[in-house]
Each structure stands twice: as structure tokens, then as C-alpha cells.
């Protein structure tokens, strides 16, 4: 859970009323919503929505019942259901939200999610332990929305369906899930394919033993072959991919630094700052400011011009 706030983080853009986000024609949008003190809303939306709470607490009143949401709570509200939300005083919410048209789920799932009320899951509770995979689904959807690579809308829809299925299985305590990897005939081929997949899955939370197991190799075999394939260690390769994505978000969006860290796969904000400064000799905020200054000047020289670095990266 991202909790720490380094001293130089830029001022946040906070919402005190529900964020208004235009629904695209394909009927699916995912975004961040950060609340300020006194957040309150009364809603009856024409679309369904999932919320994943990252920090803060709120009181929800839905269909005559009250619910308290907190970090690592996932919940769903069906289209047309009236609800009220009020953040707990001094503990405003940051969360990621998916708005979608119910028909995207297909008839069977749409029927299951269509009843009035709220489906609420504490992902870290005993018997679930689903925080990491659900966060990964949201991260992947955010990544696809940000990069808009070929087929990204199809992937968004498929991940929405996966999220819906996972949620129903958790609700019914049928949350066991087995991932299967189709092994190739050659070890180095499997590692190469794994490294290629990482370029669009670097934000997943995975351990080195998990990575080795996924390609049916011992940890030592995997680390040796991975370095041979990529020229880097497994940890450094993932860190590089995460930081490169963080730079894209810092320079091409106005997302907060906390959002950039989360969407790039960093669970700890202080670690994100440490790795970023170690790689770019700047804090994320300074990097963004330096980039914006260069754009204003219309400069064609490298972003890492030493004089500008001296000014902004103190």
C-alpha cells in the first residue's frame, strides 16, 4: 500500500465532489480519483462502476444499508442504484474507478451484477488475499489506457470481464485461480518470451522465484538465462521498465506522483523516489518541471542538459 509522502511532492488536484469523467463511445473508462477534505456526493449513475480504494476511508449508503470502505477494498455498484458517499473526516480517499456500460459484461454477468446494492470485497482479508492480482488488473487497464497500443480497447474489455468474474468468485468463496504457462521446448526461448511479456506486464507484483517457476526453471537457471537474454538482472530490468513508464506518465499526463508510482508498479512511494533519483538524478516532480520548462522554451536539446539539471535537480 502506498502511504509515505516525500516532502517535495507537488500540490495535489483534489476532488470535493464526485469526479465527472466523460464516458467514451465504447462504454468503458478507468481513472484515478483523489478526494479532498469534506468530499461528499449523492449519485445515481446510468452506468455501473468498480472502485478500488488505495487509501482513506469513506461511508457509503446504498439501498438502505451503510458500508465503510478502506484501503484494499474493492466494490461494485450497479447502474441506476442511488447511493451516497462521504469521506471520513481527516482521512480522504484515493481510489481507482472503472465506469462501464453493463452490456459489456454479456447477459450472464450483467444479470449477476444488476441487482440493487453493493458488492464489497476486503481483498486483504483472511481467505481472499487478492490484493496483488486485483491491483494488477487495474494497473494493466491504466497502462493500456495510457499507451493505447493496438487492440487496447479489446484488452480493456477483457480485463473488465476478468475483474467481474474474479469478484463473483470471491463473493462465492470460489476464489482459487491457477495460472498455466505453456512451456516451449527450449529454456532460453521461454525466458525470451517471458522478457517480452514483461514489457506490458512490468507493473505486476511478482517475486523472482515466481518468475522462475512460471518458465519451469530453477532460480539460478532463470537468473543466468535472463541476464543472457536482456543484458540485465531480473530486478534491474523490471525497475527500468517501471521507471521508463513513470517518465512517460510524468511528461505526457498531469497525474499525481502517487498515481504515477502506483500505475508504474511501485508499492512503496519512498522506494519510487529513491529509484527515480538514483536513475535520473532528479525527483519525479523536478523531472516534470524540467520537461515542462524545456517545452515552454521550445528547446531541441536533450532533457538532460547539465545546466537545466543543475537548476531543477537540486
Outline of this structure?
The chain is of the alpha+beta class and 314 residues long. The chain has helices at 106-112, 131-147, 152-171, 187-198, 208-214, 219-230, 234-252, 257-263, 269-280, 284-297, 306-312, and strands at 28-34, 40-43, 48-55, 58-62, 65-69, 73-77, 83-87, 94-100, 118-122.
Q: If you consult CATH, what is the topology of the largest domain?
A: Jelly Rolls
The low-pLDDT segments are 3-10, 174-185, 300-304
**Share of β-strand residues:** 15-25%
- Distance from first to last alpha carbon: 28 Å
Topology:
Layout: E1 28-34, E2 40-43, E3 48-55, E4 58-62, E5 65-69, E6 73-77, E7 83-87, E8 94-100, H1 106-112, E9 118-122, H2 131-147, H3 152-171, H4 187-198, H5 208-214, H6 219-230, H7 234-252, H8 257-263, H9 269-280, H10 284-297, H11 306-312
Antiparallel strand pairs: 1-8, 2-7, 3-6, 3-8, 4-5, 4-7, 6-9
Helix pairs in contact: 2-3, 4-6, 5-6, 7-8, 7-10
Keywords:
314 residues; alpha+beta; Jelly Rolls; Arc Repressor Mutant, subunit A; four-stranded antiparallel beta sheet; 11 helices; 9 strands; 43% helix; globular
Written account of the structure:
The protein is of the alpha+beta class. The chain has 2 domains: 28-171, Regulatory protein AraC (Jelly Rolls, Sandwich), CATH 2.60.120; 187-312, Orthogonal Bundle (Arc Repressor Mutant, subunit A), CATH 1.10.10. Helices cover 43% and strands 16% of the residues. The protein has 11 helices and 9 strands. The chain has helices at residues 106-112, 131-147, 152-171, 187-198, 208-214, 219-230, 234-252, 257-263, 269-280, 284-297, 306-312; strands at 28-34, 40-43, 48-55, 58-62, 65-69, 73-77, 83-87, 94-100, 118-122. Strands 1-8-3-6-9 form a 5-stranded antiparallel sheet, with helices on one face. A 4-stranded antiparallel sheet has the order 2-7-4-5, with no helix packed on it. The longest helix has 20 residues, at 152-171. It is globular, with a radius of gyration of 21 Å. The two termini are 28 Å apart.
